[in-house]
Amino acid sequence: MELPFMQAETGLPEGWEVRHSNSKNLPYYFSASTKESRWEPPSGTDTEKLKVYMANHHSAPAGRPEVGHGEGMIRCSHLLVKHRDSRRPSSWREAEITRSKEEAIEILKGHEARIQSGAANLGDIAISESDCSSARKRGDLGMFGHGDMQKEFEDAAFALQPGQVSGIVETASGVHLIERLQ
């Protein structure tokens, strides 16, 4: 399914549009002139406009259950804040992430406070603030088992009960809040 929209609305550079991958059920970025497609936004993207556009047009419905999950599998959402020492310090939100790890933790503490107070839930915040491409799906990572995620992430995720949100978890990718969905 093709979803071309004006650059003014998406914040993408001229010639780029948002399309939808049926195989992965995720939006991606496509340049009609060069036929290039990519999961990360192209350089020159107005990330603030893109965040608003993606939140309005590409957020998955909450609580949509996954089918076909096996024994020993869990489902989680997460909110990732990357920093300059993350293994890949760029995201769909920012081409180059320069914040320190301490600054990333402070940002995440603010999100954690909003979640704990009931002012917002993790999925709502993840849509616009997570540095992971899963933001498009409210941070939902789908079903996974032991050995599928980085050890620190896996240990924290499997320690949660459904409905619980972790404290801050540090991995090579950055700092996370994790919510166990099932």
Automatic annotation (TrEMBL):
It comes from the Eukaryota. One of its GO terms (molecular function) is peptidyl-prolyl cis-trans isomerase activity. One of its GO terms (biological process) is positive regulation of transcription initiation by RNA polymerase II. Residues 10-44 form the WW domain. Keywords: Isomerase, Rotamase. The keyword 4Fe-4S does not apply. It catalyses: [protein]-peptidylproline (omega=180) = [protein]-peptidylproline (omega=0). GO terms for cellular component: cytosol; nucleus. Pfam families: Rotamase (PF00639), WW (PF00397). This is Peptidyl-prolyl cis-trans isomerase. It comes from Aspergillus nanangensis.
